[in-house]
TrEMBL record:
InterPro entries: 6-hairpin_glycosidase_sf, 6hp_glycosidase-like_sf, Gal_mutarotase_sf_dom, GH65_N, Glyco_hydro_65_C, Glyco_hydro_65_M, Glyco_hydro_65_N, Malt_Pase/Glycosyl_Hdrlase. It comes from Salisediminibacterium beveridgei. The lineage of its organism: Bacteria, Bacillati, Bacillota, Bacilli, Bacillales. The active site is at residue 478. This is Maltose phosphorylase / Trehalose phosphorylase. Transmembrane segments: none annotated. Substrate binds at residues 351-352, 590-591.
Length: 755
């Protein structure tokens, strides 16, 4: 059960959710889990196929536009629809919404990497057949989407028709009533070519403004008694029809290859045809074998096993599988807030990547993590330009939401003002170094990024009363905007500043010539590193002596507390029911802010301050953001709040499977999925990576019998097996290692350690 997601839904609302849940992807290509044949005419569908980072540029319209507001934004484009396949039995078109559905099941095989949908259908005229639709996006051949349909006649049928289509005239989904979904710019593609060359047909599309091209090349393979086949086309689409004798089972395979100018150059049509023809001798069985092998290797390290709760086991595997399907695996792409499963947030990359989705890959597949860093590094020049546009003389300010490096946030109080994203990105570079020990990457990429982001804080902050302060920023809590000395921002900036100094010392020690070259490239003056260190040492943290807690910012604790208990349930999330200024005037948090800093930088405060702060902020946090529950779970585990840790974890594990936020139809909550891993490994496993080494403080929930996971650290593979009475650490690969268990230093060698 835990390796399969199942559904037999036929109602409108759940079908929209299932389109996201049954989406398939490989980090380059994503296809929503739409029905090949479509729905009934009066039913909605968000029919989508997406190529990571394939975008158009659309204008941002303002009532009043001020200096520095971005003029345009990038928008993920829904590319050509190649999913469509219609089946007819003696002229009666198959649909789940006509005739009788005698049996129906839908499965997503997370261990094998494909989806299947099987229907026992009786037509209005009494024709019966079992029809199975299978689909797969290859992890081995990133451009490949393959479908295979098996039809078994169960009554007397003379002819079976199968019609495949490719439609280039697609649009994006819009919802004017939801700020989390785009409300305009639906039509961003136009068809430049519709072609048929031998047994290959396809479409080429081009975006309106960015002038990026994408091509889809398709070929059909058939097994059965083919009577004839034909094709037709118009200005935007191609259709191919196969006619079979209905006296025996048949199978139709639809092989589609997608290419785009971002990765394949200007000849996208030629590249698509060539790559498709290169697979002409490849069978479905071969593709399935490759898929299985890829996933076997993935699950060997990434799988997390929970004994005692099958639903949670299903949830964590689903979340990890969808993260794998959505993460960009080349330096040209990242991982969007909704991955490749939908159009929520328009395909933009946020801080979600570094703080929530990056850690699972860093600790299980550092090669993928490195690509994510390389992508961010490729946008460093754009971040430096953005800093200047925002009035800074120096430094790198990464955009709050982006695809290619330009700021895409039109609402600056909860967008551009979130300067902490530059420190979040710096944090991910630091932790790559701490986790892998890759000093060459620090020399070639890390030190430069850390210096440029550190420069931002020097320019954005200032000294007052012998303290370094950072004014007019927004922290992670988007219900509190444009504040002075947000604790999260200041603490992360301090870490950034400290590590800029340390990184340059690493470069100087390891490679003096590279150090000199980097100093020249950066124009780094001698006193700058001293300035970074001084600002870090003098960083101001707001603190309330009466409450004994870190204040979220200079004024947060002066505001009236929002009465969450008396707020009607139907008014959550608050952002959809209250003007931002109303929210800004109250003590109310959308998500973890100060509490998140305590997780990422727990040594910046003593445990009692952390405990008092946790207790306070918990009471004023709505968790309207899916990024919040996991953080409260992690910190509850650290503080020994076992029931709370478990309760908050439950909210994360099946958030999309159970559609608890009621917007899964727009795409999966990828950051929450990464947060589920964090809650297990960093929460219940108590794992932290610090300069002192690898630390664990395991706390198994009483509801479980066992929790087992793996991590990679400095070229070691380590298995951690937590049971009620003990934790066992096993070194599976690599040299012996010193690590910490509840503060006690231990040495892990070839034999397991039990504590």
């Amino acid at each position: 059960m835990s390796w399969k997601i199942t559904s037999n839904a036929q109602d409108q609302s759940q079908l929209l959710v299932d389109e996201s849940l049954f989406s398939q992807g490989n980090g380059y290509l994503g296809v929503r889990g739409n029905f090949e044949e479509g729905y009934a005419k009066d039913m909605k569908s968000i029919r989508g196929t997406y190529i990571n980072a394939f975008h158009d540029i659309v204008p941002i319209e303002y009532g009043e536009k001020l200096f520095g507001f971005p003029d345009t934004q990038q928008k993920l484009v829904n590319v050509m629809d190649t999913q469509s396949i219609q089946v007819s039995l003696d002229g009666e078109v198959f649909s789940l919404f006509t005739g009788d559905v005698l049996d129906y099941k839908r499965l997503l095989h997370m261990d094998k990497g494909y989806a299947e949908r099987t229907v026992h259908w009786r037509s209005p005229g009494g024709k019966e057949a079992e029809i199975t639709f299978n689909r797969l996006i290859s992890f081995v051949h990133k451009e490949l989407f393959v479908q295979w349909i098996e039809i078994k006649p169960l009554s007397e049928i003379e002819e079976i028709h199968v019609e495949s289509s490719i439609n280039g005239g697609v649009t994006n989904y819009v919802d004017a009533d939801d700020p989390r979904v785009a409300s305009g710019h639906a039509k961003r593609l136009h068809v430049t070519d519709v072609f048929t060359e031998g047994d290959v047909s396809g479409v080429v599309d081009e975006t309106e403004v960015s002038q990026l091209q994408a091509a889809a090349a398709v070929t059909l393979r058939a097994a059965g008694s083919v009577i004839d086949r034909g094709s037709s086309s118009d200005a935007e689409s191609v259709r191919e029809t196969l006619r079979f004798s209905g006296d025996q089972p048949i199978m139709v395979e639809k092989w589609t290859v997608f290419t785009d100018t971002y990765r394949h150059g200007d000849e996208v049509k030629h590249e698509a045809i060539t790559r498709l023809k290169g697979l002409s001798e490849t069978s479905i069985e071969h593709i399935l074998t490759g898929q299985q092998s890829y996933l076997d290797e993935f699950w060997k390290t990434a799988d997390i096993q929970i004994s005692g709760d099958d639903l949670l086991q299903e949830g964590i595997r689903f979340n990890l599988y969808q993260l794998l399907q959505s993460v960009g695996k080349d330096p040209k792409s990242n991982i969007a807030a909704k991955g490749l499963s939908g159009e929520g947030y328009e395909g933009h990359y946020f801080w979600d990547t570094e703080i929530y989705m990056y850690p699972p890959f860093l600790m299980t597949d550092p090669a993928i993590a490195k690509n994510l860093l390389l992508h961010r590094f490729s946008l460093l020049d754009a971040a430096k330009d953005r800093a200047k546009e925002m009035g800074h003389r120096q430094g790198a300010l990464f955009p709050w939401r982006t695809i290619t490096g330009g700021e895409c946030s039109a609402f600056f109080p909860a967008g551009s003002a979130q300067y902490h994203i530059s420190a979040d990105i710096a944090y991910s570079f630091i932790h790559y170094y701490l986790t892998t020990g890759d000093r060459s990457f620090m020399i070639s990429h890390g030190a430069e990024l850390l210096v440029e982001t550190a420069r931002l804080w020097i320019d954005a902050g200032h000294m007052k009363d012998d303290q370094f302060r950072i004014d007019d920023v927004t922290g992670p809590d988007e219900y509190t905007c444009i504040v002075n000395n947000n604790y999260y921002t200041n603490s992360m900036a301090k870490y950034n500043l400290e590590w800029a100094v340390k990184a340059m010392a690493i470069v100087k020690e390891d490679d003096p010539s590279s150090y000199e070259s980097l100093v020249r490239k950066l124009g780094l003056e001698g006193q700058e590193l001293d300035q970074f260190q001084a600002a870090a040492m003098k960083m101001y943290y707001p603190y309330d002596d009466t409450l004994g807690i870190q204040a979220q910012d200079d004024t947060f604790l002066n505001k009236q507390v929002w009465d969450l208990e008396k707020t009607p349930k139907e008014e959550f999330p608050l952002l959809l029911h209250y003007h931002p200024l109303t929210l800004y005037r109250y003590q109310v948090c959308k998500q973890a802010d100060t509490v998140l800093s305590y997780f990422l930088l727990e040594d910046e405060a003593d445990e009692e301050t952390i405990r008092r702060s946790y207790d306070y902020y918990e009471k004023v946090t709505t968790h309207d953001s899916s990024l919040s529950y996991c953080v409260f779970s992690i910190m509850a585990a650290k503080l020994g709040y076992e029931n709370k840790a478990y309760h908050y974890f439950i909210e994360t594990a099946r958030l999309d499977l159970d559609n608890t936020h009621k917007n899964t139809k727009d795409g999966l909550h990828m950051a929450n999925m990464g947060g589920t891993w964090l809650a297990l490994v960093s929460g219940f496993g108590g794992m932290r990576v610090k300069e002192t080494g690898l630390h664990f403080a395991p706390r198994l929930p009483k509801e479980w019998d066992e929790l087992r996971f793996h991590i990679r650290y400095h070229d070691r593979l380590i298995a951690i097996d937590m049971t009620t009475n003990q934790t066992e650490y096993t070194l599976l690969e690599g040299e012996p290692l010193h690590f910490f268990h509840h503060g006690e230093e231990l040495e892990l060698v070839s034999t397991a350690i039990k504590h």
